[in-house]
Amino acid sequence: MAASAAIYGCSGLTLTDDEKRFFSEASPWGFILFARNCQSPGQIRALIAALRESVGREAPILIDQEGGRVARLRPPQWRAYPPGRNYGAFYAAHPDKGLEAVKRGARLIASELLDLGINVDCLPVLDVPVPGAHDVIGDRAYGITPAPVATLGRAAALGLLEGGVLPVIKHIPGHGRAGVDSHLSLPVVETPLDQLRVSDFAPFKALNDLPLAMTAHVVYTALDPAQPATTSAIVIKEIIRGEIGFGGLLMSDDVSMQALAGDIALRTRASLKAGCDVALHCNGKMDEMRAVAGEAGTLNGESARRADAALAALTTPDPIDAAAEYQRLQSLMGDFFDRTSLGIS
């Protein structure tokens, strides 16, 4: 059965019978895991096997494993990694070592993910935060200017790819100016277009060759005052595909977030009509997933080509000694690693 233009979460540590039936019928392109789905390595491997069995193929499995406060896999079962800001500060003090650290950290994350069967990480964050913005991005960003964000974002993406995991650049075309948390309400950015071009868009343009991207639930009044990027044909066609030149698979941010208006069916329909290739739905609520499935349709045409191209970028990595590499990362970064804030004794 052909994949549908959707990515779903699931409700818990194992699949319910309803979820197995639904996923088998809906045949989503992929799945995404959250902390509620992650208890132990064996449990995660079994869950992933059940998810893939439900659709009868090696569907991509996504997760948000950035480091810092956005990490679905946490100690003591998994290693902790610094947030983007720590890497950025280290890079500012020691550019060569900073690049090495970011790439090494991402390569280590990839090794942990791939060991579980996870092959897509929603990293790097390419947003450029500004003073006064909501801290929903905050220390997740590599810097407050576009050049280091792009440079370190590229290093993180390369580390993931070398580890057999696909990176997802987010949140295109830029979430750094949002004054509110898009999980809860709709951010409206009134910055002029010329300023957005030189700052917010720049890291995404520099990494426009990467295979996957996630949209921002943000209104940019200079582009489309009526719709956030996720549901704006203007933003997707003219800016994301046009000016930024991103040619990979474009997924929405989570359509269950409250930044989007209307019911789940409307949000899904609007995001796909605007030009997203795939709708992402994360909370695992069955009634909402059924609504998404009613709108998603089959992944075909250019969207299917982009999906195939993304998966073709997966490689089989060379083995690494993860424990030794992790020690090297901590030694390399020194105080910038910040063991205390990461809960490492």
| CATH second-level architecture | Alpha-Beta Barrel
Strand-pairing-aware structural class: alpha/beta
Total beta strands: 12
Radius of gyration: 19 Å
Number of domains: 1
Give the SSE order as H and E letters.
EHEHEEEHHEHEEHHEEHEHEHHH
Shape: globular
Uncertain segments: none
Give the terminus-to-terminus CA distance. Answer: 49 Å
Give the strand content.
Answer: 5-15%
The largest sheet, given as strand count, sense and whether it forms a barrel, is: 8 strands, parallel
Keywords:
alpha/beta; TIM Barrel; 12 strands; two-stranded antiparallel sheet; 345 residues
Would you mind describing this structure in some detail?
- This protein is of the alpha/beta class.
- The chain has a single domain, classed as TIM Barrel, CATH 3.20.20.
- It contains twelve helices and twelve strands.
- The chain has helices at residues 17-26, 41-55, 84-93, 95-116, 146-162, 193-198, 202-206, 233-243, 264-274, 286-296, 301-312, 322-333, and strands spanning 4-8, 28-33, 61-63, 65-67, 70-71, 120-121, 166-172, 188-189, 212-215, 219-220, 249-251, 279-281.
- The strands form three sheets. An eight-stranded parallel beta sheet has the order 11-9-7-6-3-2-1-12.
- Helix 3 packs antiparallel against helix 4.
- The chain is globular, with a radius of gyration of 19 Å.
- The termini are far apart.
